Structure formats: C-alpha cells, structure tokens
Amino acid sequence: MDIDALRSLVAFVESGSFTRAASQTFRTQSAISAQMKKLQQESVSPLFEKEGRSLVLTPAGQALASYARRIISLHDQAVTELKHSHDRVNLRIGCPDDYSVSVLPLLCELLQQTIPNLCLRLSAAPSVKLRESLDQGELDLAILTRSPDSDEGYLLRHDQGVWVSHKERDLSQLRPMPLALYETDCKFHASAIDGLDKADIPYRLLATSANHSGLHGLVSQGLAVAALARSSKGELQELCAKTMPPLPAIDIVVVAATQPHAACSSETVKQICQRFRQQDAYLLDTPAEAV
C-alpha cells in the first residue's frame, strides 16, 4: 500500500473530514479521494460507510487505520535511520574480559566524548588473540597487556598482579593449594607456577581459563586461589604479599591497527589515553589492605 495514501487515511481519521485531511497533507480533495479509492481496491473490504451526511470508517477501515499508524511510524523511523547512517562512525574494539569492567567503560566514554555519532562494536578475547585480530584488520583498537620488554601501544594504567581468595575461605594455607589461573600465555600463569615451585609450596592446578569470569567464579565460591590484576579482583580478598610468591607488574595499553581508523588517528588515541590516565588516577580506588 502506498505510504502517502496511508498518511491521508490517518489524516482523515484525525481531522474527521477529507477537506481538512487534504489541507494537512497539502493535496487536493480529489487527490485524497483517488488515494482512498485505491486503498479500497487493495483492501477488498469496504473502508467507509455513510452515517447521516458524513463518511465514517467501517470496522475494516478502523483496523487499516490502526495498521497505518504503525506502518507510518516504522517507515519514518527507517528513513531517519538511513539518512543518518552514513554519518555513523563504526569502531571495532577488542578487550580481554578481565578489563571489561575496570578499564573498558571509561575508555568508551572518552571515545564517545571525542568522536561524534560513534557506534562501538566490542569483542572479548585474550591479548594474544586480540593482537592477531589487529594484524588481520579485524579490529581498530585493542586493550592489551603490554608485551614484556616492548613499547607497544599507549599506556592506560600501570597495574600489579596479586593473589586473591574468598574473603571467608582462604585456601592459600591448604596443601596442595588449589589454583585457578589464566592460560599459559598470561604473564601471571608462568610467574605463579614458577614462584610456587621456588617457594616449595605444593599446589594443584584446579583450572585454567582464558576468561576472567571463570576464574573469578571459582574463587568467589571458595574453590581456589587465583593470580589476577589488582584492578580486576573486584570484591575478592587480596592475600598478603609476604606469604605468597611475588607476581609481576603489568602495563595495560591501547594498541591501534596498522591502518588507523579515519575517525581515530594516532594523535586522537594518544590524547584519549592521556585523559584516561588523568581521570583513572582520580577514579581508581586505593587498593585495600591485604591480609
């Protein structure tokens, strides 16, 4: 059905006359009559009936008017969306899920403040996988743990690896100590295993995971001790560094694709990361005292 004819039908319903409907739609009354005749032919059922000297809608006409309102609304919404879609900036960002709460939201906020009409497409994966996606042109930006002895990316935050356990069920004294660690490509995995071996602390590797949520869930249930970044530990209890092997410090950075996004130049990323560090230093809570 013709969208303009449906608009005329709704105008008739709302104004109560074809004369006013013609005025509201900037058409002649004969043009309105022709549109109603066409709608009548397409709908098969009668749309109008006489009530005294006036024309009113039949039940079929009332049903069509109800549909017409919804069709017009969707039509106008689609047209508006399509008109502005060419202005939208689509930016693909990858982030390890252990930074999805502690780092990603502030970065996204700063990007939206800087780039108008920004639409973000977020994906989660370990740093190693995100580097591959950057190299293959599948991402525009990625939040990563900086590679050892490298200068990659723009710094967001210095962080520290810490041992964590359930607040009321500290398993660090249990032998063998149950461990939940990131996969072997994570700095914390190798450091934790190496440190425990050197300290002659018996352990049992209960689980490994590329996802933070899996490790966090095991520790939250009092099933294991884990090695995490301090800013990712949430409500978990940080264990005293004096009783556990040391874990490395890490740098969390933003890395841009080799071919930068047109709306997100290297200078733009650099400035956003500078603003992140300024605001992060203010927002980041002081680490709780370890036990």
TrEMBL record:
Protein name, UniProt field: Transcriptional regulator
Heme as UniProt keyword: no
Keyword list, A-Z: DNA-binding, Transcription, Transcription regulation
Keyword presence, Transcription regulation: yes
Domain of life: Bacteria
Family that this chain belongs to: Belongs to the LysR transcriptional regulatory family.
Domain HTH lysR-type: start-end pairs: 1-58
SUPFAM superfamilies listed in its UniProt record: Periplasmic binding protein-like II, Winged helix' DNA-binding domain
